[in-house]
Amino acid sequence: MSMSEPDSTLSRSDAEDWLYHEAELLDQWRLHDWLELFTEDATYRVPDGIDDSRSAVRAALINDNRARLEERVWRLITGPAHAQIPRSTTRRLISNVRVTGAVDDVLVTSNFLVHEIRKGQERSFVGQYLHRMRPGADGWKVAGRTALLQNSVLPLFNVSIII
User: Fold this and answer.
1) For residues 13-35, average pLDDT
2) Which key words tag this protein in UniProt (predicted)?
C-alpha cells in the first residue's frame, strides 16, 4: 500500500489495506510506527459496554487523546506497564470493511477479532472498529479510533494491550 499523498476518496480496498497495515504494526509491536498513523488531535476510545450511543459522557475503558496515547505506547515499550511483562503476543483479524463519508471526513467501519496470548493463557476480544480518517500529506491518518467490544459485558480483567 502506498503511503503517499492520498487520493480524493478512500476506496474500500484501500481502507482494507490500511487496516491490515495497522493490524500488522500492532501485532509486530511496532507501536511508534502505529502512532504515526494518527493525527495530532486524534482520539482513541474503548467504551464500557456495547451500547453504540457514542455519548460524550459515557464511561470508557480507554478514552485517550494523542498525548495520553503517546504515554500509553511509552509505558508498553519501556516496561513500566507491569501487566505486559512478559509481553503478550497478538494476532488481529479484520473483516466486513465499509467506507462512508466525505473526502475530509471518512468513516471506516470494520469487524475485528484480536487474539492475545500471555503467560500460557489466551484471550480474545471481538467487536467493531470505527476509524474516522482524514487525508494528509503522507497518507490517510486516524482522527478518531473507537473499538466497540462485544465481549465487554464479560469480565475483562486487565486490558493492557492496544485493542
Assistant:
1) 97
2) Dioxygenase, Oxidoreductase
